Amino acid sequence: MLRATLFIVLFLTSISVATAATITEYKGIFRPGLDREGGLRVAIREFKKDGEPALLLVNPNDLSTCVAKRGELDASRPVPEDKLSTTPYIKSLRRFTKPSGLLQNHGARRSEQPVNGLFMTIDMCPSVRPFEQAFFESLMALPQGREGAVPVAVAMTGAWLKNHPKELSWLKEQQQKGRLTITWVNHSLNHPYNPKERLERTFLLTPGTDFDNEVLATEKLLLENGLLPAPFFRFPGLVSDDSLVKRLGELGLIPLGSDAWLAKGETPKMGSFILVHGNGNEPQGIRRFPPLLQQMKDFHLLPLTSAFVPAGR
Ligand SMILES: [Zn+2]
What is the Cα–Cα distance from 242 to 250, expressed in whole angstroms? Predict the structure, then answer.
């Protein structure tokens, strides 16, 4: 028994080491095709993983992602447009990357489906403060944690990831132990911000920002750290304009807003995308969580993808 446990521990360790990789020639593509089992997939990135040609695939029916060798996607025959356009991924991508004229909170703000639960989205903007480990622990201590991993979405910046290796390992460890299931949302590489500027000239609208690099370099960092990027993006400050949103759509990512930013006093309802900061920069949002649990007795978190996928699909 002990030997078996030891074997499992060593095996898990070797998987986590093996998933860290060198990623080069990373670029955006849009290539529908079939995987080896005949399942519909859309390749949204092409790159080399430790020198081998690889793809980042989205399953358009459940919005899950995976990394595959390039030869594992058969894109030799065209996928009929109606087969693709009726999938939850393509429907959501088109719907949420249409021009809206909004400068703030463009995108999906709550579940598209009737659901019995909420969605926790935790932004990790650049920060020098200690991260909110106790908050993550309180999520893992939710009653549902007794039945399995608690689903959360972490919106990660490259700048936080690079400067917090210990905290990142701790998050990965919770994932490996089956305590958290983390959907890794892209929150840009540098997350520029100047509080003195108008919204039109700050965050990713800061003049001179290389938007493609802000998106792609973050995913590359996630992959190099053995983490799987999801097809979602949270704009820093929730600030964007129609041209950024359009480009995001071309890059195959769905923008995420929020209808329950706790630090702004917004109150979640069933299906809400709750927004808190896990980087220590917004303790007032974190402080609202325990009273919220008191008020919402049946507080239950759901995986972000289920906000976009009809039940039973
Ligand atoms: Zn942020």
Answer: 12
